[in-house]
Design a protein that fits this description.
- It is built from 13 helices and 38 strands.
- α4 packs parallel to α5 and α10 runs parallel beside α11.
- The relative contact order is 0.09.
- Helix content is about 20%, strand content about 30%.
- The chain folds into 3 domains: about 230 residues; about 280 residues, Glycosidases (TIM Barrel); about 120 residues, Sandwich (Immunoglobulin-like).
């Protein structure tokens, strides 16, 4: 059965319906037997129609012009023609205010059906999808093979939204009820494929299968993304803690791992204090509990934590502590108590047994945050810990649904399992206030808290190293998570401690991100490193109000705090492909050095009049700056002075003032006298 629902006018037997739009898009819906025809091309100067053409492997989506037929993709690849158990519904919609056009595609069938719809990446740039360990951006050169779209530990996919947008202004949003997998390049070469199948990790108790998604078409990617934020993704409801924005978090994790005790913590706090570096807080990470899940301090390591906290606070710190959502089986009586009360996630066989990175020879269980009583039990114990030791806030780790015993049984709508627990966990812990941090997310973009990048490794490249710091920032922002906390400067050091060069470049890449987080310290290296780090830590603080302004704009409109550079000109084909630069709001462009041994780099500036953050020179974009000099002490960054297209008059005026040796002067711009702020520095 194929239904085509065009708003109020349901089409069952009509052979030809077209819709013309300002953006020159046309839709052709054809029905002939089991063939429905559907299509879209935005911003095409000539009339085009789209057809669904029945083939042996499904339905080809074809764009038709007077002179050509372009295959855009193929839907219904796993559907057998004539299968009366399967239904396809096509529904049209519009957004008059933004000029968008939508088609909703809905496949429904029994639980053993499989739906597979594929779209050609083409030559477009694509963004969105899951956070990845090897995070490339744009994402069309990545490879994923039937990859479950849930929040999971594998590949650092802690944030895994069902949203993709491309440089032509198309976006796809897939409804959360679909048991969704995505495939890049494997099912079909150079295609993104969406697969709905009731199989692990999705509940086998589902009685039906559904693949429903909305295809929206706009004039460009910026308009498309803003619409997606307003319609599906949401925007933050407030700001995180200001001191965390302005000054660094100092964590014990990378430096000490689990080898912490009272003396080491006190010595570390004094080291930081003596260095003269500022601080947002001192973070006590793993391992402070007597056993994992007890939330009870190990007094063999920390004989007087309450006094230690007060002593550290006397140095000017706030103190936070690391917490996770697991209870290990050897952690008694807490494990047995929670098990008896039904507070753990069980799998379909009734077992709570799972695994995490701190098994320590035991078997853990995952607290079921979809059970309100279990969530309250966890929260009350965390609150007691905070009050007993005068802790200021908490770093909440994990939260991905993959930590559940497989295949998990949760409370709530079965069609939202297993991702429902991620949202439940993050919403539970967000109640602890604006100083917290989380690392997982699923439909939680509205929360006013930092979301931390999953741990980075101490490498330079795309193997979860420095090269992925910027791409992960962009990936999270384009999924609607705009309040991003980069992980430790220099990486976690699992493979090796960071070199001086890597450490400094890592810090520089962080400067125009929302916050800084140290664990390895500048004085691990020489005095030059210390002074460079001091300067850029201060530069970050100087731009704190700019970061806050970008966050306030994100609260207001949902705009990224750190957008890609094409945000300033979404028609710029060069900017659309750049993944190693980023913006802070719409005024600062950062182009950090991300390559080992490099002392220069090529930088692309999109349209606008830019001021070099170091030399003060004015530069008119769009333009490439080839071999821009960037020795170790230089972070290339630029401030947007004016966003317009013709800067010749401004450049001439700038050169005139410079020749006069003046810092500020009235100049004539197109017959209009101006005293221009852009000349106050220089």
């Amino acid at each position: 059965m194929i239904n085509v629902d065009m708003g109020k006018n349901k089409m069952i037997f009509s052979l030809h319906t077209t819709y013309s739009r300002v953006s020159k898009m046309k839709w052709l819906m054809l029905l002939a037997g089991l063939t429905a025809v559907l299509g879209a091309v935005p911003r095409i100067p000539t009339t085009r129609d789209f057809e669904l053409e029945e083939t042996d492997g499904g339905y080809n989506v074809i764009a038709v012009t007077d002179s050509s037929r372009l295959l855009l993709g193929q839907i219904g690849r796993k559907v057998s023609p004539g299968d009366e158990k399967i239904s396809l519904t096509l529904t049209e919609g519009r957004d008059a205010e933004s000029g968008g056009y939508k088609v909703t595609i809905t496949w429904e069938g029994p639980s053993d059906s499989v739906f597979e719809d594929c779209f050609d990446f083409g030559s477009k740039q694509w963004y969105g999808g899951p956070e990845q360990k090897e995070q490339y951006w744009p994402i069309q050169n990545s490879k994923l093979q039937k990859y479950s779209i849930i929040s999971k530990e594998d590949d650092n996919a802690a944030v895994s939204e069902r949203y993709w947008v491309n440089s032509n202004g198309w976006y796809i949003y897939i409804q959360p009820e679909a048991p969704l997998f995505v495939d890049y390049h494997n099912v079909l070469d150079n295609h993104i494929c969406f697969i709905a199948e009731v199989t692990e990790p999705y509940s086998t108790k589902r009685t039906r299968n559904v693949l429903q998604y909305d295809l929206w078409f706009f004039d460009n990617a910026k308009i498309a993304h803003q619409h997606a934020v307003d319609t599906y993704l949401g925007k933050p409801s407030g700001l995180p803690d200001y001191r965390m924005i302005k000054y660094p978090v100092w964590s014990t994790w990378a430096r000490y791992s689990r080898e912490i005790d009272q003396q080491k913590l006190w010595e570390f706090a004094n080291e930081i204090n003596d260095s003269g570096f500022p601080n947002a807080q001192f973070e006590i990470d793993d391992l402070w509990e007597i056993c994992y899940g007890s939330l009870t301090v190990d007094e063999r390591k920390l004989p007087d934590l309450k006094q230690l906290v007060q002593d550290i606070k006397s140095l000017g710190f706030r103190v936070t502590i690391w917490v996770h959502p697991f209870v290990n089986k050897d952690c008694e009586p807490w494990y047995s108590d929670a098990l008896a009360k039904g507070y753990f996630v069980l799998n379909e066989e009734g077992s709570p047994d799972t695994s995490w990175w701190n098994n320590n020879g035991s078997i853990p269980a995952y607290i079921d945050f979809t059970n309100p009583e279990a969530a309250d039990w966890f929260s009350s114990r965390v609150q007691e810990l905070i009050e007993t030791y005068d802790i200021d806030s908490v770093k909440f780790d994990a939260g991905e649904s993959s930590w559940s015993p497989q295949i998990p049984v949760q409370n709530g709508d079965i069609d939202l399992h297993p991702g429902h627990i991620v949202e439940a966990y993050v919403r539970t812990v967000a109640k602890f206030g604006p100083m917290i941090e989380v690392r997982s997310g699923m439909r939680t973009q509205d929360l006013p808290v930092f979301i931390r990048m999953v741990d980075k490794d101490t490498y330079w490249g795309f193997n979860n190293g420095l090269a992925t710091l910027v791409t992960t920032l962009l990936q999270l922002n384009l999924n609607g998570y705009t309040l991003v906390l980069p992980d430790m400067i220099g990486g976690n050091g699992y493979n090796d401690k960071p070199s001086k060069e890597l450490f400094v470049r890592w810090l520089q890449a962080n400067v125009f991100m929302p916050t800084l987080q140290y664990s390895f310290v500048p004085w691990d290296h020489d005095e030059e490193a210390v002074e460079i780090c001091r300067r850029y830590t201060q530069l970050h603080a100087e731009f704190a109000d700019e970061i806050v302004a970008a966050m306030e704009q994100s609260v207001l409109t949902g705009a990224p705090v750190n957008p890609p550079i094409w945000w300033l000109d979404p028609t710029d084909q060069v900017a659309l492909a750049v993944g190693d630069e980023f913006l802070l709001g719409e005024r600062i462009l950062a182009a950090p050095v991300l390559v080992e041994g490099a002392v220069s780099r090529d930088i692309y500036l999109p349209r606008g009049l830019w001021r070099d953050g170091h030399s003060g020179e004015l530069i008119s974009g769009p333009t490439w700056l080839t071999d821009y000099p960037a020795p170790l002490d230089i972070l290339p960054y630029f401030t947007l002075e004016k966003l317009c297209r013709d800067f010749s008059r401004y450049i001439e005026a700038y050169q005139k003032v410079k020749r006069l040796g003046k810092r500020r002067q009235s100049v004539d711009i197109d017959g209009r006298p101006e005293v221009m702020k852009i000349f106050e520095r220089g």
